[in-house]
Design a protein that fits this description.
By secondary structure, the protein is α/β, with parallel strands linked by helices. The protein contains 17 helices and 22 strands. Bound molecules: adenosine-5'-triphosphate and magnesium ion.
């Protein structure tokens, strides 16, 4: 169906948003048409989430005009946004951790039995179950606090919640981060059916292929300003990237040839009841070893077990030939193993400390002279260097990490681990949420780390990333390493066959 220009649902004109020292948005204008999927694209810190927060009533614009169905509105708060038909899945988790899925879905708008003062628990439960069943076959989860459910299920519950509002526009800020392929597909089906019902979608993602699959139009932003609005059918991925970053980027992933040294990590007979089965692997200096597998196959559980973040039933971890008792990530760091976790929001940064300290804090002894004086100047130099290389968008290195955009917070945590003197670094989805321009620099920094004698274990859902960087790849299926591929043997088909259990 051709969408007519006059079917504009929301119209933004000259939107500006200023924070102390930062102009996050400057003169952004854009129309959202009825029943379209409009993608918002731009590098980390371009202003996507800020624009969304203004539309959702979380932030107030500094100036500019918003019209909904032709009427000028001042979106006061999130409740007001919902009344205007705007429903949002935010980049950061927003569920109340102590409440169940049902309670979260109906928080503040509980269904009450007609004529009675009692809540209609049954209807609320049934409605939640209906949405939830589209993603998962089990529903016992609906009775437990969502904090017990893990990131993936929490995400799905947020999506179910946003969809349940009968909104006229659903905004999704990186909704597929942490979703498995299967759940992505379910979400995409939802998006298509919402669209058929005339609901508009604003979609933010750094997965450009995803955008080309879903979007009708794309609005490109850079440094808080409009760059262009384009029809998907009139543009290519390369053109889109060029508009986003305003410079040439190579998307060529390659690891430099590094001679392998001695073994730096050996993991033997790692077991965790019902989750991991007899995991064995090793890693040499100069080597990048990948773990490939579907979401939920035990990739994250494996690396968490190695660093003592989860309890294990058995297993031995050797670093440089020496056995270590690792019962916590602290023990792991002492043994020389650092883990950059998948869920960085919760485990990674001290968000109320400045960028500079966050980068250097894991390796304080490298910037302390005579074990006493903090070399302020050196700390600044190091921080400035990483900020520049990773293109971390921040007014100064003294800005609190809290005030950086999602992707830039991740870059800070990456920088922190790269600066440590770990012997082994484990990266779990290091480029999730990071824009195309900065990804290449992340790959370069990982390569540099092994060039300097480190070993890297890399978990990633992006097969091109794994195949481009890794010297060897282990494939995990249902908690078991089922195959090891050399760089030459690893193809997308080969990996997928083992990852999906097709070899059995
Ligand atoms: N509360 C805040 N205080 C100060 N600066 C902020 C605040 N929120 C956002 N910013 C700044 O505004 C700019 C835009 O941030 P925003 O979160 O909108 O980026 P984004 O496009 O969503 O990036 P990402 O892809 O990393 O999520 C950034 O430079 C960020 O540091
Ligand atoms: Mg964002």
């Amino acid at each position: 169906m051709e969408v007519q220009d006059d079917q504009v649902l929301i119209s933004l004109t000259g939107i500006t948003k200023e924070f102390p020292g930062v102009k996050a948005l400057e003169g952004v204008s854009l129309d959202i048409r009825k029943g379209e999927v409009l993608a918002l694209v731009g590098e980390n810190g371009a202003g996507k989430s800020t624009l969304i927060k203004i539309l959702s009533g979380l932030y107030q614009k500094t100036s500019g005009e918003i019209r909904v169905n032709g009427e000028v509105v001042d979106i006061k708060d999130t409740k007001h946004a919902q009344e205007l038909g705007i429903s949002t899945i935010f980049q950061e988790p927003t569920l109340a951790p102590e409440l169940t899925a049902v309670q979260n879905l109906y928080l503040g708008r509980e269904i009450v039995k007609p004529g009675l003062r009692k809540m209609d628990e049954k209807t609320m439960y049934e409605e939640t179950e209906k949405l939830y069943r589209k993603f998962f076959s089990t529903v016992e989860d609906l009775h437990v606090p969502v904090k017990e459910l893990g990131a993936l299920k929490n995400r799905v519950i947020e999506i179910a919640k946003a969809i349940s509002f009968q909104a006229s526009v659903v905004i999704m800020d990186e909704p597929t981060a942490q979703l498995a392929d299967h759940e992505r597909e379910v979400l995409f089906d939802f998006i298509r059916s919402l669209k058929e019902q005339g609901v508009s979608i604003i979609y933010v993602s750094h997965h450009l292929r995803e955008l080309f699959l879903l979007a009708d139009r794309m609005h490109v932003m850079r440094d808080g300003k409009n760059v262009a609005t384009v029809n998907k059918s009139d543009t290519t991925i390369d053109q889109l990237v060029a508009m986003m970053v305003g410079r040439e980027v190579s998307n060529y992933i390659v690891k430099k040839e590094v001679p392998f040294g001695e073994e730096v990590l050996r993991v033997t007979d790692l077991n965790r009841q019902g989750i991991l089965k007899n995991i064995n692997f090793n890693l040499r200096k100069g080597e990048i070893v990948g773990i490939a597998g579907l979401a939920g196959s035990g990739r994250t559980e494996t690396v968490r077990a190695v660093v003592g973040a989860d309890p294990i039933n058995s297993g031995n971890v050797e670093v440089e030939g020496k056995s270590h008792k690792i019962r916590s990530p602290k023990d792991a760091i002492k043994a020389g193993i650092g883990l950059l976790p998948e869920n960085r929001k919760m485990h990674g940064a001290l968000i109320d400390l400045p960028v500079s300290q966050n980068i250097t804090m894991a390796a304080m002894d490298r910037i302390i002279a005579n074990k006493l004086v903090l070399k302020k100047k050196k700390e600044s130099q190091i921080a400035e260097d990483y900020v520049q290389r990773l293109r971390i968008k921040t007014p100064t290195i003294n800005q609190k990490v809290r005030f950086l955009s999602g992707g830039n917070q991740q870059k800070v945590i990456l920088a922190k681990w790269l600066f440590t003197e770990s012997k082994v670094l484990i990266f779990d989805e290091p480029t999730q949420g990071i824009d195309v321009g900065a990804k290449v620099e992340v790959y370069n920094l990982i390569s540099e780390f092994v060039q300097n004698g480190g070993g890297v274990l890399l978990v990633s859902s992006e097969l091109p990333e794994l195949m481009g960087l890794c010297d060897r790849i282990y494939v995990i299926h249902k908690g078991e390493f089922v195959k090891e591929f050399s760089r030459e043997e690893a193809t997308e088909e080969n990996i997928m066959m083992y990852a999906s259990g097709g070899h059995t």
